[in-house]
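debug: dumping io for the single-chain case to check the tokenizer round-trip. Nothing else runs in this session.
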Amino acid sequence: MNAGKSPTGRSADPDRTERLLIGGEWTAPDGGHHDVLDPATEEIVGRAPEASTAQVRAATEAARAAFGPWSRTTPELRARVLDHTARLLRDRLAPYAELAQRESGATTATARGMQVGVAAARFARYARGALEPVETPLPPQVNPAGPMGKAAVIGAYAARRPVGVVACITSYNNPWANPAGKIAPALAMGNTVVVKPAPQDPLSVYRMAEALQEALEEAGAPPGVVNVVSGTSAEVGAAAVAAPETDMVSFTGSTAVGRAIAEECGRSMKRQLMELGGKGAALVFDDLDDAGLNAAVAGIGTTFSFYSGQICTAPTRVLVQRPLHDRLVERLTHYARRLPLGDPRARSTVVGPVISAAHRDRVESYLDLGRAEGARLVTGGRRPDGPDTARGFYVAPALFADCTSGMRIVREEIFGPVVVVLPFDDEEEAVALANDSDYGLLDYVWSGDVARAFRVAARLRAGGVGVNTIGRNMEAPFGGFKQSGVGRDVGSYALHAYSEVQSVVWTG
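debug: decoded output
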């Protein structure tokens, strides 16, 4: 391998050519490099490596070689590594957040708080998680004498063991929090990882791996605990999934890609954790007072601003009880129109660009489709024409009304700043409309009647439900029903996701 040292704490550098991390060595890629663009300016942020399938296999082999010794390390050592990584991320927050902003298009507050800040918090959380008990004692069982032997008391406990080598395939919308949420609990449980970042913004993942590798080396960990391979070709991720050394795949992305990964995993019965698409329903009942309605509008309005709608948990389908329909549409329209859109570095900006020209074209194709289907575009959907947005991949927040449940803009995940509104008459119709979806990740209920809100929540076919809030509890399990995913992570649930359960039985 052609190895080299990777400098620490640096932000964006358009002249820097990144290297792969394989077996503890920073390695030149066989396939050269591709440019990573700033979605706000279309300028080159840096150059990301293109791994060959042979290099992906080298990474999975390195992870396999490291698994034995790493899985036998003490929980205290693993906790120290993860805690050290969290401190390094916090120490380098400013340059790392600058890089995150430049390659993902996030606003400054989002890049600092929700990307690098959350990544550091997740490493710190799983430093504690490494010390959580892995054994659950079970009640003894008294077996009478019989064909199996003498009478005996049989003791048992259930223990969580590491799965092995985990291929972590991450999303572009949060190049810090998403991979951290995979890598940290996997390592806490004693697994080793091969990380394949999204091609649109992989540089942040390399900076995260750089900090983690420093912490691993300081602790004397074996080489190959963490490996990073990237590329624009689908063959890179496919090679990581198919490698015989890979025991588990943790994937965040589209349902279509998740389905293909699941088919490959099924051939060799590999463990899967899938966070896939979403088309979250926000059910708004007419028993809200004015303050409650404003809270609903503000919650739904985050779809327009947070990651520019590029988030699977967004409440993109708004189901509103008919007497409240016109007021809600009016207030959402006002909310969308007053959101400052432009350069994410500007202090006043709330809505930045989407990730790429190709994705902007995809969002715009859905805007055209919505109009063709007969929906009414109330506001937005155009490319802004201001001097700060002459370059970059911008789409003004869009709101559709007069929608019906069969429209593709209502049924398909757009993954952009687009909200659709449908009326309903009563609770039964609201629940039926909400559940009439291939997806089931996060739904939301806004109601002035708390009993009704919780009653409705229990009937929604979604992995999570927000009652009068879009807030998240970061110890609550996260995952989806139906085509929104398989498995649960976050909090201690992630430690379970990255472990297998072994029973130990004895006689006393």
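debug: round-trip ok. The longest strand covers residues 152-162.
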